[in-house]
Automatic annotation (TrEMBL):
Organism: Ruminiclostridium hungatei
SUPFAM superfamilies: Ribonuclease H-like
Official protein name in the record: NurA domain protein
InterPro entries documented for this protein: RNaseH-like_sf (IPR012337)
């Protein structure tokens, strides 16, 4: 019955177990759009080319209107369980993670219910600086153990880039996030192919559509995101509004302070590494006198552009999406979540459903202190 330490030591790699560290509490959660870059803010990426904020007319008759029927979210918990020494001179953290993704549906009685089972993965994350032979043998030994089978454990590698990550654990967390986003894409793909997502039914993804940056190689990838909108609760207020901003110009946060309840910015253009275009804009969903911080109560929205959107997203489509988001702002999760002012209630319920599938931290971590039989 070898321990995890002994499995590593067979490849002459020393694993030091240390005090277990809950990385999600130890490291501050980054902005949801961290690393984002907007290509064009000087000219609106929508059919209405006015360079000023727009007001969404929220009439009494529109109060029950929303084009959103589905709500998707992913969540993860990451823990550092030790450090491994490579080649007698480099130390890298060993990280484990619980990763979940799921989708809920608003039924005809306007109740939120689970659309399908929550997707689950448990991960053991090791540094890619380990050579392939050592990694593969360690991986094979671990996945054959009873503990790994019970956990349905996957052993994967993370790549630490000194230019992108401050510390190696950030690279491990980023890898867990990438796997989580892939699980969300799998759910979305099954919904589209099964016909669950009808043309008149839209889906909210909690967070930016950042995972679309990944090159999945799916030929029908754009079709998957035809009716999907990304909604970010947190965003970088220091994002420059033009290339000049990097040399002391205006940052997006200064512009957002001018938004009143029900107002949105023009649509801005984003382009990913594969040349796909997205429109993103900001919308204030709470009155300024109801929040404690002037940047609270604002969400960042994203939608993939279609081939026919040569002039940008249709302004009427953007306004309809914004109207739906404003209507999703009631009721609130005030008192239950500190992010209530930017948290849409159906997304909050989806998040709660997904988090209920996690094992307790203590139970999950203790699996890696046992003998790996």
């Amino acid at each position: 019955m070898p321990t995890l330490n002994e499995i590593f030591y067979r490849r002459k790699i020393t694993l030091y177990h240390n005090e277990n560290l809950d990385l999600d509490h130890y490291y501050q959660e980054p902005y949801q759009d961290q690393g984002d870059e907007i290509k064009e803010m000087d000219e609106p990426y929508e059919t209405d080319k006015l360079r000023k904020k727009r007001r969404i007319n929220l009439n009494f008759e529109d109060r029950q209107y929303s084009s959103f029927s589905y709500f998707m979210d992913g969540s993860r918990r990451t823990y550092k369980i030790g450090d491994m020494v490579l080649n007698g001179r480099e130390i890298f953290p060993v990280v484990v993670a619980q990763v979940r993704a799921g989708c809920t549906e608003r039924n005809q009685s306007r109740k939120i219910q689970s659309h399908q089972a929550v997707y689950r993965k448990n991960l053991l994350l090791l540094s890619s600086r380990m050579n392939e032979v050592d990694f593969e043998e360690i991986r094979q030994r671990i996945i054959k153990t009873e503990v790994a089978r019970n956990l349905n454990l996957e052993v994967v590698q993370y790549k630490f880039d000194h230019q992108k990550d401050n510390v190696p654990v950030n690279a491990a967390i980023a890898k867990a996030n990438t796997i989580m986003h892939s699980m969300e894409i799998d759910i979305l793909e099954s919904m589209v192919h099964s016909g669950a997502l009808e043309p008149d039914q839209m889906l909210i993804v909690d967070g930016p559509l950042q995972f679309i940056r990944q090159d999945t190689g799916k030929p029908d990838f754009a079709d998957l995101f035809y009716n999907v909108v990304g909604v970010s609760k947190s965003f970088d207020p220091m994002l420059p509004t033009s290339g000049k901003a990097r040399r002391g110009g205006t940052q997006i946060g200064a512009e957002l302070l001018k938004l009143e309840h029900g107002e949105r910015t023009p649509v801005f253009l984003k382009i990913n590494s594969r040349g796909r275009k997205f429109g993103c804009w900001y919308l204030r969903i709470r009155p300024k006198d109801r929040v404690s911080n002037p940047l609270e109560g604002i969400v960042k929205l994203e939608k993939m552009a279609l081939v026919e959107d040569e002039e940008g997203l249709h302004s009427s489509v953007v306004d309809n999406i914004s109207l739906s988001i404003l209507n999703e702002g009631s009721p609130t999760c005030y008192g239950r979540d500190e992010r209530w002012s930017s948290h849409l209630y159906p997304v909050y319920l989806t998040e709660a459903l997904i988090k209920s599938s996690f094992e307790s931290d203590l139970v999950f971590i203790n699996n890696f202190k046992r003998d790996f039989r």
